[in-house]
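Protocol step 6 of 9: fold each sequence in the batch and record its structure tokens directly after the sequence line. For illustration, a two-sequence batch is reproduced in full.

Sequence one:
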Amino acid sequence: MHVDTLVKNVRVYNAYTQQFISSDVAIDEGRFVAIGHSDELESIQANTIIDGQGQQMIPGLIDIHLHIESSMVTPETFSWALLRNGVTTIVAEPHEMANVFGIEGIKAMIEASAACTVDMKYAIPSSVPATSLETTGGAIGIAEMDELMDTEDIQCLGEIMNYVDVLSKPDSKTNQILKHFRRSYPALPIEGHVPKLTGLDLHQIVAAGIGSDHTHQTREGMEARIKAGMFLEIQEKSMTDDVLSYLIENDTREHFCFVTDDVMADSLYKRGHLNVLANKALAAGMKFEDVIYACTMAPAKRMKLEDRGAIAPGKIADFILLAEDGQFVFSAVYKDGMLAFDAASPYKQTPKPRQFPPHFYESVKLAPLQEEDFHVVADRQDGIHVCRVMNVADGSTFTKETQERVPVANGLLQWQDSDFRLIATFERYGKTGGRAHGLIAGDILQRGAVATTYSHDNHNLLVVGANIPDMVCAANAVIQAQGGCSVVENGEVKAMLELPVGGILSEAPLAELAPKVESFVKALTALGYKHYNPIMSLSTLSLPVSPALKITDFGLIDVNNGKVVPLFVNRVGGGD
């Protein structure tokens, strides 16, 4: 037999026996063709022979639930970053670009992925917009879904986010999409987003065809999901001692995998990607072989990627040579049998500019804002009134609602004289001109202002501040840049992160973008914002499927009840 490549003297991880076996590995036309002892493969001739020098060899890592846009980079930049972290296959859901540009945004992301070294499979965003209580640049319905199925290589239906409608509105758009997808494409998985649901509600979700959950997990929630037949996708924020001990102590190998979901650009550059979670699981005491399985074979099975996830005959030759036994530290990463990353060689990125259609760089259709745009007009008498307040706490992207007393004078809410800050959002697609104001408190900025078009999932302009002049300055800096994030204090822009592609992506190399993201976070933190992930905390303040009180251009959103609620609370019995 003659093959392209023969990898000699390696210890190969076998996903089926959970063992490392000393072997040689033959590769031809990008696939594994034989794995065995040297004497078994001695008749094989190869164009290239690689001496593995006794290193451990594992499959390329697979991440089946993520959003490239969360890293604020293009697919090309993302692929570059993934390879040096051992990831060779992903299933991406581009619902951020879909919210900005609709089906055109999805197709543009897929096209931008075509030349990438990493295999980028795609999920159809199922929740664009996430709810009917926000304005987006595009929408995905059954017609768009069918078009994507006809024209693109689609791996699954992306996360069903509006679980409230699934449970309470049989004729909702979400349920129509679910029923159509199950009927028309029964072989494809359906991803879920069901935070905290248990009991009958959880069973209704599973019965509707939703087969996984990637949200913040607890021990009890995981057990309920596994018993109901749901697959768990464990992201880093769920990797608590309690969750990891449950996964380690129970027979869960076929019921979960690790996923990243959202990775900020600075973290992607400095810390890594799926390998970060893998090493964290190792440190918690999970067996090395089980961690490998949770990052390779388990996700491949979930997504029915039968051609990868293992080093075995017929599988795609994606593999990693480990620099250290039993650790996710890589000396080399191979894709389709070809060297893609060598830790001993320079690894530089030279991204291409203007990878998207021209109008993708002109998506913020807002005139400069004035101070009057941040006045909260109160349709009630002067005096003290009760208002809803959104409360943010470090450690979670969930918020809580409290009701607080705030003065009204001359027909305007006097929030500047209170302990609260102002949050405002402005529809930026030139469709409705909608806007909304609210009050916010907790672990947020205490001075200055921040503005961003990177605001999930509608990506309208979101502004939070302690005074109106700084809010105007921050907002206009983002508008002028055609999207991005700005931090302002005393009229001075302290940090500016330009995101010109749809207001959510940068085409800069990761080595340039990451420090800018880090500077933005430092500037935001310097104003008093406290959170383990300040960007995610800020950007999800406008996400109307993440409990409990959020804001869109429609107004304040009571997420648990799926409805718009007023800023001012009318107490039962008359008055406020």
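Sequence two, same batch, same settings:
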Amino acid sequence: MQQTTQALELINYITNQKRYVSLEELCKYFDVSKRTIFYRIKLANNKLEANHLPKIKNIRGMGYWLDKDINNKFQTTKIQKLDIKNNKENRIKEIIWQLIIKDTPVSINRLVDCLEVSRNTIINDFKYIKEKYPFLNLTTSTNGHVLNCSEYNKRRFIYQALQDNDFINHKIASLNTSTINSAQLKFNFNNLEHQLQSKFTESARKRLLQLLNFISYRIVHNNIIENTSISDLTEVKPEFITAITNFLRQYNINQKSEIIFFSKLILCEQVKVINYINSEFQEKMLATTKLIINRYNQISGININSKNFILALSNHLYATYFRSKYSFTFSTPILKTIENKFPEMVKFVQLACNPLSKIIGKPIPIDEIALICLYFISYNGISDDISDFLAKTNDITESLNADVLLVCTSGVSSSTILYSNLHKRYPLIKFSKSLSINNLEKLIRIPNTAKLIITTAPINETKFDIPVIKVKSLMDQRDNYKVDKTLKKLFPQLSIDQNKSIKKLMEIIDQNAQIYNEEKLKNDLREYLYPYSSNEQSEKTKLRLLDILSSTNIEFLKHNSLNENICTLCSSLEQRKVITSDYKEDILNLIKQYGPYMLMSTNVFLAHAAPSSHTLKAGIQIGILKNSISIEVNGSISKIECIIVLSPGFHHEHDRALADLINIISDKNLFNKIINSRSKSQIYTLIRHYFNEN
């Protein structure tokens, strides 16, 4: 019996990861030897074979994984209890769900019997809930544990949980909400969109309808939102509240507090088209978006000036603003991937978003920053300009000549990053714009050229006579493997050796045109046809802060003028042949055009311009002011105590160094010590010790 349980636990773990799992990871997770894991894999494969299901596969160099059939067939029937018992994430949600739904104390013994785990496991789970969800205020009563929080906070948890996985979705679906007809609900929601003159993404629409089912159930059981003020909705047009009120009354929801609460949910969701924001706030957000993009341009050295990009990001930032304002957390697994995979960009976007943070009146959560990063990742991911992609309409005829159809229901950021990653990796293959599931089904009935469907949404594969691959919008190693394998099978030209391809193209070009720089042409062709190879090479050239910093890069400044101090720091870099004299002019022209555009914090100014022929290599000069100087920024006075001139090099070699710098400035305790130091060597030692310890 124990061996069977161990085999099922192994199947459950690999299945839930939805990626390749290394042998080392399995050994560490189960705390056993490699030999034991090999034995359990054998037991697991015997169990799978007995159920006529595919075995665990071991892909050399990648790890272990299970076929999608395991999710569809085996997991739901054979290890459903194990999915809660051994999957901590689902177990936590099950415990909180019981505490919310029962509205009475839940004892440890009850949970032990229900979940088939030990008392220590439940006790540790309670500790975890208190740490991760403090707003639920989990407390102990004489009869067990209760959530001593408002109905508002309980629903905040449900909102967040609906984004993580399907667990809470299934729980809501199991509730008795017989008064709500699913088809009629969708029809009524379409009418609501029409009245609001707006259009939600498919994932937003789905989540809102799930939440309405949950809200209806709670109200029927006398769990009603209290003390919600309409003053929280000053950014919307008056007709917005009227439309929400009429919509909810169809489901016997008449309480003013509930109408305001659902209005907030609407505002927190992503929309493709938004027309319910008042003109004053709309202008404010558009100006803030332009400011964010301008700050990002100066930090990253990328020149984004696309009108469509500005409008798309501005549209997204409404949801960011309202979720941050109302403390509704947005969190999905892809956001952690972004934080881990693009740490420099997360820092840049976080710094660029300071103007939005000031409007909200509090810091923007890191997951929201990661979500905004999707836009900038997407822009960087396309070699020309993303504005063409963002400007595309929803006309399916544009996709009739595509080689590969893309389906993504999450929103413009997820859609764009999926497109940009594939477009850049396979430039000779024509990918469609992002299609909704409905439009995919319409398109497939019209004569088209598609050979493959790549989707981030679950779809019924039996409806299509071409292969379907399910991926994440930010594709991981397993997704890339599946897509690459299938594309090489469908498009044999992708399997041709790189050097042979370049050589053949060079021969064709040589026959028809005069080549002035053969080596440069080869490199340009290689960068266009095989961009991932060049990206990997460029990543190796990224420098850390300590790679470009020594005590000679630190000096004390005495001028009372921002421009004079910048000139002093630039002269030091020019003497070391890091920059030319023109780089100083680049920075001063930016200040003349935008004002003091780059405050990194309340007292630190970053003097920085885009890579050019004026930036010979990556370098830095840190200036500590003996006496602070005052500058005016957006109508308010800031006192500057530190000025930093940073040269990005010629190919953004400074990205990691700048991220390191942001980390130092964000550490208030450390940076206060730096500002108050009067020795270059002491400042350098503080910085070096910081990175050695971290």
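Proceed to step 7 once all outputs are recorded. Observation for sequence two: Residues 279-300 form the longest helix (22 residues).
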